[in-house]
Amino acid sequence: AGPTEAVDFVAWGHFDHRQLAKEAAAAGLPEPAWAVSNAKVHFSDWWRWTTGKKVRLGQSQALEALGLPPGQTPHRAISDALDVARVLRIIWDPARGSAQAQAVLRRCAALDPEPVNRGRMAEVDDSARGWFERAVKELKRSRAVQVSTGRAHVKLSDRGRAALARMEA
What we know:
Blueprint: E1 8-11, H1 15-26, E2 35-38, H2 39-51, H3 59-65, H4 77-91, H5 99-111, H6 118-124, H7 128-141, E3 145-147, E4 154-156, H8 158-168
Parallel strand pairs: 1-2
Antiparallel strand pairs: 3-4
Helix pairs in contact: 2-4, 5-7, 6-7
């Protein structure tokens, strides 16, 4: 796969990463240095943010909840990888994000190219102080916004602009 520092390893849960680390150790190889990402956690966060319901679903249940047909052969590497990719394609689409995330996108567009922060959101919505950071985390995960180093300012990215265009269509 090339330099592992440039690889994101995404799986439904942590089993696959742990298994590959064990197999590397057994072969006398160093543990892979890729960034590990748990799609189950990403889906659970997104589900809670968009529906208000807190759940931990299995991969097939998540597909069903999103109205997606199951893959060809569950628990087979290629089939499971494709299923995870289909789930991530939906939940990392900022146009399908929570109402709060969409509000931040719209505010960023209104002020573009000036950055938005919690104070700027409070000018529009007094309750923003409670949900702004969570909405920014959601948008950052989908790469719809660029966040300053101090996490105080948020700017719209090209992906965010494309999501806004889909939301408005």
